[in-house]
Amino acid sequence: MPEGDTVWQAARRLHNALAGKVLTRFDLRVPRYATADLTGRTVLDVTPRGKHLLTRIEGGLTLHSHLRMDGSWKVYANGRRWTGGPTHQIRAVLGTADRAAVGYRLPVLELLRTSEEHRAVGHLGPDLLGPDWDPGRALANLLGDPARPLGEALLDQRNLAGIGNVYKSELCFLLGATPWLPLGELPEDRAAQLPALAKRLLEVNRDRPVRITTGRRDQSHFVYGRAPRPCLRCRTPIRSANQGDGSRERPTYWCPTCQSGPAPPPGTR
Q1: Between the N and C ends of the chain, which has fewer C-beta atoms within 10 Å?
Q2: Whole-structure pTM over 0.90, yes or no?
Q3: How far apart are CA 113 and CA 115, in angstroms?
Q4: What tens digit of pLDDT does each residue of 187-201 get?
Q5: 3-class DSSP state for residue 7?
Q6: Burial of 227 (0-12, 13-18, 19+ CB in 10 A)
Q7: Residue 148: its pLDDT value, please?
Q8: What InterPro entries does the record point to (predicted)?
Q9: Which residues are catalytic?
């Protein structure tokens, strides 16, 4: 599941493969940009911004993509078979003399002026893995709505950018609070720890092939994906439910013993 750390890794792979090289193929398989052709232009850089990817290209253009739940970018040496999915799932192909970057199942793909990148990412809060990281601002954003459930606030990219369902559940566990606890009820000392804790989790995982939040290779997560197995700390069965407005699946996991606060509303289990 793409979150800030996996998007950072994708940006690094794309940057290493494309930056400084001339495009020999530029194929966007979405109706709006089907005729766009940037072959002959040089890729300048690939930059992550939260869960967004910005591929900047000579001439003041940026290819903006977002992976959401199951999108991915794969890089292949020329001549190798593409294995990221069936052909009909390919949304973008950026080729150079020796590499091909292939975007699969990309729900967001747009070509915009680099000077107008703010239209795509200007709403985002401080990026946990970016140069704009500001823990004070991130905390102020989160606490701006004290009645909002902790889990929902963590997923809101306007507060801080890079957290998805996995880190949401793991952060709530490490803070000892259920994801449904109103932020205003989170003890002040724990709230103060939240930005640094979130940043540390993403930083230690951005160079790992497998995400680990526990420090244990035999158990990669404290709660995420572990229902109904026993909690690693207290042995109480982990529970799961969906959190949010119901418009999309938001799997949430928690330990009812180690985490204090409300349980999910009836009907969400």
Answers
A1: C
A2: yes
A3: 5
A4: 999 999 999 999 999
A5: helix
A6: middle
A7: 97
A8: FPG_cat, FPG_N, H2TH_FPG, Nei2_N, Ribosomal_uS13-like_H2TH, Znf_DNA_glyclase/AP_lyase
A9: 2-3, 51, 250
Per-residue H/E/C for 38-51:
CCCCEEEEEEEECC
> Residue type for 78, please?
N
Q: What is the pLDDT of residues 161-215, one digit of tens each?
A: 999 999 999 999 999 999 999 999 999 999 999 999 999 999 999 999 899 999 9
Q: 118 in helix, strand or coil?
A: helix
Q: Is 213 helix (H, G, I), strand (E, B) or coil?
A: coil
Q: Is the peptide bond before 228 cis (omega within 30 degrees of 0)?
A: yes
115 CB-contact burial (10 Å; exposed 0-12 / middle 13-18 / buried 19+): exposed
b vs e for 167-185, b when ≥16 Cβ sit within 10 Å of the residue's Cβ? bbbbbbbbbebbbbbbbee
Q: What is the DSSP secondary structure assignment for residue 173, as one 8-state letter?
A: H
Whole-angstrom distance between the N-terminal and C-terminal Cα of the chain?
21
Q: Name the amino acid, one letter, at 183.
A: L
- Collect all residues with Cβ–Cβ distance below 8 Å to 188 and sequence separation of at least 6: none
Q: Which residues, in sequence order, are bridge partners of residue 112?
A: 62
Q: 105: alpha, beta or left, given left = phi > 0 and alpha = psi -120 to 50? A: left
DSSP structure string for 17-80: HHTT-B-SEEEE-SGGGTT---TTPBEEEEEEETTEEEEEETTTEEEEEE-TTT-EEEEEETTS
